[in-house]
Fold:
Amino acid sequence: MRILTYKLLLFLKLIGREFKAQKLRMGLTILAITWGTISITLLMAFSVGLDQQFAKARQGLGDGIVIVWGGQTSLPFQGLPQGRRISFRTESGIIDLIKSHVVGIDMIAGEFLRWGQTLEYGEKQINKLVCGTYPEYEVMRAHYAKAGGRFINKKDMDLKRRVVYLGTDVAEELFDEGVNPVGEMVKINSIPFTVIGVMIEKLQDSNYHGPDDNYVVIPASTFLLFYGDPFFDNLVYKIEDGIDSKAVEKDLFRVLGAKYRFDPEDESALWIWDTVEGEEISRKVFLGITIFMWFIGGMTLLIAGIGVANIMYVAVRERTKEIGTKIALGAERKHIVFQFMTEALSIAFVGGIVGIGFSVTICALFRLLPMEGALEFMGKPTVNWVVAITTVLTLSFIGLFAGLFPARKAASINPVEALRYE
Amino acid sequence: MENGTLASLTGITKVYRTGKVEVRALGGIDLDIKRGEFVAIIGPSGSGKSTLMNIIGCLDTPTSGTYVLDGQPVADMGIHELASIRNKKIGFIFQNFNLLAYATAYENVELPLIFAGAPGPVRKEKVMHSLSVVGLADRADHKPTELSGGEMQRVAIARALANDPEVILADEPTGNLDTKSGQEIISIFERLNSAGRSVVTITHDMTIASRCHRIVPIRDGLIESNTENGKDVDGTIN
Structure:
């Protein structure tokens, strides 16, 4: 065992010497592996960040929701002409009707909207869209309040409280930094409301009345008290998990068709935005992007591999004469082969570690950047360790084999020929 | 120094085949090299002298014939044994020195000792001893590029001496050197030889060959006349 260790040390001594000698070539090979590792791990890391962020953004509007507007009939039905407007009258009990007659609806809420309402706090005055809605809206549309606040609840509804929940941007516009809006009094059209919550900042990739950051939400009952709106502007419902949104839609046409007397086949009678369908498409698009990224990653790996193989191959070839000399001086085959193997592995190891180190650092630095605008969608790039380690191992093996075969060949050819090699 | 035959070659031929053409490099060589001999192999280029040298140095194998080195037929040896022979019994010197450019003189001389698996202190002692034999102990830390041609060849000699071999085989050691450096190399060979070591050298230069004890002229793969060099025959050999 001691002899073995000793021999190993001798080997390493030899190799260390040759490392020093081939600084440039070693440096280039390490660079090739480092570069390959960085490109692939970063590509995959950013792909993960992007994917997560898009998934989050898709849910910014709400997870599995459908928005319904009243439309205009395009078919005559039961003696009624086409071109009739369909409106959801508030007192019609439409919410309860849908809840009890349409299969697969988890939650439903109506929305009342008024644009250009004046909000006042102290000296500040802004115009915003005011939305009156129900407590279910909170979960469906991901309107979660920051710590210390809340969304409107059933009690607010029952008591027709003058309370208001503010979108993130609205709160920022009205209140100075450091002021906690919760509990403060703001005036909407000169009527005082108590702020009960401010929305947590969220990523949102789509909207229908402007981003939720800009929402001002009050209880539907309070809204009706002040504005007396006889019609819902639109309905929002959330489908139960695992239910086909198209089937629910069909059922909705049937139930509402019976109530408002339109043909259930008349597609323009209701305007429907099925975000479930959109999510499905977006998910597929992203799957496509991910596959594309893997493809590019694979190609990059291949190119890096070819680079490594090329450098190792040349390295061995150009040292053929040296191999011949060593054989003449009594080197055994193992001396020669082991040297190149260790060299290839060490290069790959160093290159891989440096590459992964760089990737992790770049990801960490990227997270420090202020995430605004398009950058927001880059999310948090995360190094996938399986990808990183697979990359390094693959490049190591390519380097190893590219070096091993010519080294074995050189070590087994006639030393006279090796010596003559120029 | 024990007398007797160090290397014995009988009916050695070497045929190279390039495509369909057969080239007969050696056509049947009979040659005995005794212990402590100083032999010059001379001949024009393409005469087969390098091939002969490579066979003596166990770097090449003959197509036919027998080669017995130190009492052992070389044909019977396995690759490990051959490596060991090249490492310990033979010290090879090349026309182009073949030093590792990136290694110091010390490291170059240390190489065969590393292959031999010699322990650290032994290596150090032998390297320094070999370098002092060729008068380069003070150049141990120099790289080949920092040395003159003559000095490089002396490092190569020190490297050949590191494992204390039975025989020094030199393939045109002075071919790339100026006359003065060449004479220095031969002087070192003479010193080594007078200390009892066998030396076989290939040369073109008759002034160098004339300083050897025996001249083996080769032409067209055959020994022309195995003549001994007049002045020293009775003095040193036997």
Q: What stands out?
A: Chain A has a mean pLDDT of 84. The CA atoms of residues 53 and 379 of chain A lie 5 Å apart. The two ends of chain A are 40 Å apart (CA to CA).
